[in-house]
Structure formats: C-alpha cells, structure tokens
Amino acid sequence: MTAGPVPILAEGLTKTYGGFTAVDGIDLEVRRGEAFGVLGANGAGKSSTMRMIACVSPVTAGSLRILGRDSATDGAAIRARLGVVPQDDTIDGELTVRENLLIYGRYFGLSWKVLRERSARLLEFARLEDKAGDAVGTLSGGMRRRLTIARALINEPEIVLLDEPTTGLDPQARHLLWERLHRLKQDGVTLLLTTHYMDEAEQLCDRLVVMDAGRIVASGTPAELIARHTSREVLELKFAADERQVMIDKCRGLAERMEELPYRLLLYTDDGEETLAAVNARGVRPRTALIRRSTLEDVFLTLTGRSLVD
Amino acid sequence: MGTSAPAFRELGYWLFRYRRTWRGSIVISVANPLFFLTALGLGLGKLVDRDGALHGESYLRFILPGMLVAAVMQTAFLEAAGPVLQSVRQRGNYRAAAATPLSPEDILYGHLMFWALRAVQNAVLFTGVSVVFGAVDPARAPLLVPIALLVAVAFATPAAAWSVTVTRPSQISAVFRFAVLPLYMFSGTFFPVEQLPSWLRPLAWATPLWHGVDLGRAVALGTATPFRVLVHVGYLTAMAVAGLLVARRNYRRTLHV
C-alpha cells in the first residue's frame, strides 16, 4: 500500500454519557493494512470507541482523525470510506439477500450498474451465491454475519470496523468468517475489530490494545503482550470441591503468581514441569493437571484481575 | 444516475420497499373512500339530509372533505409512528443508514418525502373516487390534494419526532387509540362542530384536525374566506415546522449517541 494518512489516529479520546465515562482518554494509532484488535470485557468501552470511530457518536473530548480527516467535521466523508459491521444485525428481513446489498449500496450513491456487478462479487466472497434470491429470514447466524460483512464492503471501504464479529456463532462458522477476514486483509483493507475472544484476537490481530473501565491497560502484538505481562507457561489445576481450599492453600508460594478462578487454579511459571513436581512434592493431589503456554487470556487476567467471558 | 442528494437515497430505500406492497395499498386507498361514501353518504346521509342542518348542502358533500383529511391524518400517523420505531429498533434500517454518508437529518427528510408522496397518492385516489360519486365539485377537487399534503406533514413530523424515542410498540397503539381516534370523532369530521355543547367547542377548535377538516370543507364547498384559510394554513404549517424541528433534534440524539 502506498503511504497515505494514518487510517485511525486518536489522542485523549473520551466519551461520557451524562456523568458516566465510557471511554477515558485513550490514544490509538491504527496503521494501514493491519488488523488491529480492541480487547475487553463487556462494558470496557469497546463499543463506544467503535461508534466514535464509525462517526455515529460525537467525541466528548480529545481528537480523532480518520483517513486524515477530523471526525467532528467530516463525518459524512469519512463514513463514505468505512465499512461497518455492527454487533447487532441491521439486515432488512423483508428483503432478499441480494436486495439487502443493492439497497445498502444506494446509500453510498452508487449506480445500479455498479451495484449489480459488486453484489455478484460480494455474494461469492460471502459464499451466499445460492442464497441470493432468498429472504434473509431463512439464513443461519453465520450466513447473516457474512451478509453483514459483504454489505459493509459494498462501497469498497479502506477501513472495516467489526464489533464482536463472531459472537454467538458456532466454531465452524467462526473459522469460515476468520478465513474471509484474512482474505480482506491480504487485499490491503485495514481492519479494526473488538472481541472478547482471545483465540480470535490471536488468530486475526497484528496488534491490539486491552481495555478495562474505559482505559487502555496494555498494547502491543499478541506475542509482546504475552512476553511482557505473563510468564512463559501456566500450570492449570482442578480439584475436588471438598478439598479445594486446602489444596489451594498448600500451593501458595510455588509460582511467581497464582490466580484462583471458580473452577481452576492457575500457576504462572516459566517451567510448568518443575512447578508440577513441586506441587506433587507438597502432597497436593489435583484431579487434573495441565501445562500449557501462556495466552492472551492470561494477559487479560493479569492486567484486570478477571476473566473476559463470565 | 450516479450520486444523488443523500435525503433522496433514504427516499429510495422506502420506495424500494414499497414496490412489494404498493398494489395492496392502492386497493385500500380506493376501497376506503368507497366504503365511507356508500355507508355514510348514501345511507346515513339520506337520514341527515331531511332536517336541513347543513344549510342546503348534502351530507355527502359535507363529510367528504372531512373524511379525506381524517384518512390522510390517520395514514400519516400510522406510517410515521410504527415504521420509525421499527427503523430504530428491530429492523434497524435507520441505524444501518446512519453508518453510511447520510446524516440523521438526511434520514428524516428522506422518510418525510416518502410520507408526503403517500399522502398525495392517497388524496388523489380519494378525491378521484369522490368526483365519480359526485361528492365533490370536480373543479375544486384538485385543491384538496395540497391540503391533504399539508395535513399529512403536520401530523407525520410530530409523530416521527416522538416515535424515534419510543421503545415499546404498545405506546404507539395507545396514542393511536386515545389521541388519534378521538380526534377523528370530535374535530368536525362527521358533523359541524357547532353541534357540540358550547363548552366543548373551543376544544374542538383547538385540535389540529379541525383546522384541516374546516379548511378542506371550506375549499370544497366554496365557502372559504382569506382569513379562515390563513388561520388554518398558519396553524398546520406551524405544527409541521415545530414537528420537524423537534424531529431533527430527536433523530440526531437517537442515531448519533
């Protein structure tokens, strides 16, 4: 891609509703052609951030420039170059799959001729060619999502915003969607997505930020975040309910850090085997023990003290 | 056709949807006056015309403008209330449009143009049927169309301004039942307001529908005076403008949160 203005540049971006601060002075820089993730639990401020970037929510304070333009004054011109995949579907259930693409494209002032050609291509991209003439009501959840994404591409956007794109989809539908998003990225489209799925973030994102209570608490590549904020390995232990507390107390001091979750105990360590041996030496008898590499989930736990999906 | 003014793109959306239902809506627009003119004009009218309360006008000619204006009000309310609620909430087509270059005001103006077109379509069919029935002077009938348009806009804009903030469909049916239908009954649609007890008359004169009905009737029967026309048109225009201003504000607050 040729060097142009930075796709998304936010400084001190703030959003308040009445007395409630949803987004609390965040800085963001999304580079051309990358897939950028915003991670956070529900209520962390992800969706408010996305709505401001989509230019459908006025910025309370701070500056927000998208494709070199000011979001406060150039909203319409910016929206013309964005593709938006909202969290809740806004597909028209009374129209057919193809009609949804056509009529949405008209909002961008595109001619019917251009739209007929593009919708054929996008139906293929979304693997919905066979469904073109069907009512939207007959689509599965994954198909609806793919239609929403296809619709967001009708204006050939430079940036695509995806707010929790795979929430509520089954694993197969998620993988197909990820594969389509990868293809978009290869075509040079900048992707900004929110998610509370760690595997999704690791699959898709070149860089990401972790949000908590309206602030950015960490940023970097997935590998950087794991290296910086958590140990190399994690020992996961599960106990029988009646001896759980006794066992947990016995494990204290065996690892750099310990995290108690409702159904498991996490021990953060650089050598899982060694820690497991130490655990056994103390007479701790877990029902199951698992050694694994640290993931973004652990980064999130470390940073915010709670898990992403409750 | 390449680019068009943004508001026309919203109008395009509603026309695109309308392609699926226009036949049915035209049948309703024609059947509605047919039933009313037959039942009220020919049936009830025969009875009313005996006592001469309408100063020599036939009941059919007396109620025709009122029926038209009231029907237009009802359609304007129904098309501006429920569909706006659906557009913001369930179907979400307003939210989808707000993600495109359209502003909330463009979305409002585009939808308003659709209501206006529907009102004109309704009024043309209604007066057309009425002319065939001999219920209105063919020379004055075309004047009823712009009056119907004014009434439709005067009711559609406040209805939209309110509906864009509504969260439950039951609120809309409540307003229809307790505000719109009573207007129908007490705004001189079926009988001269002078028939009401004297203490109730000022209330009728204050209702927006009465201004529309009386304007339509005065024009259709050839009894209009410049002062009367000015008062009615002024009232309805003020209502349309106030509704539009509040709707603009509410659309922006709802769609650009």
Automatic annotation (TrEMBL), chain A:
Q: Which GO terms describe its molecular function?
A: ATP binding; ATP hydrolysis activity
Keyword Disulfide bond listed: no
InterPro entries reported in the protein's UniProt record: AAA+_ATPase (IPR003593), ABC_transporter-like_ATP-bd (IPR003439), ABC_transporter-like_CS (IPR017871), ABC_transporter_ATP-binding (IPR050763), P-loop_NTPase (IPR027417)
Stated family = Belongs to the ABC transporter superfamily.
Question: Organism source for this protein?
Answer: Actinoallomurus iriomotensis
Any single Pfam family the record assigns to this protein: ABC_tran
Main subcellular localization, coarse class? membrane
Compartment(s) of residence: Cell membrane
Topology in the lipid bilayer: Peripheral membrane protein
Ranges for domain ABC transporter: 8-238
Protein name listed in UniProt: ABC transporter
In the UniProt record, which is one GO cellular component term?
plasma membrane
Keyword Cytoplasm listed:
no
Specify the superkingdom.
Bacteria
Keywords recorded for this protein, A-Z: Antibiotic resistance, ATP-binding, Cell membrane, Membrane, Nucleotide-binding, Translocase, Transport
The alphabetized list of GO BP terms reads: response to antibiotic
UniProtKB/TrEMBL annotation, chain B:
Any idea which UniProt keywords this protein has? Antibiotic resistance, Cell membrane, Membrane, Transmembrane, Transmembrane helix, Transport
Listed GO MF terms: ABC-type transporter activity
Per the record, the GO terms for biological process are: response to antibiotic
Q: Where are the transmembrane segments?
A: 21-42, 62-85, 112-135, 141-162, 174-193, 229-247
Q: Where in the cell is it found?
A: Cell membrane; Membrane
Give membrane topology per the record.
Answer: Multi-pass membrane protein
Q: Which GO terms describe its cellular component?
A: ATP-binding cassette (ABC) transporter complex
The residues covered by the ABC transmembrane type-2 domain are 24-254
Report the sequence similarity comment from the record. Belongs to the ABC-2 integral membrane protein family.
Q: Could you tell me what this protein is called? A: Transport permease protein
Organism, by scientific name, is: Actinoallomurus iriomotensis
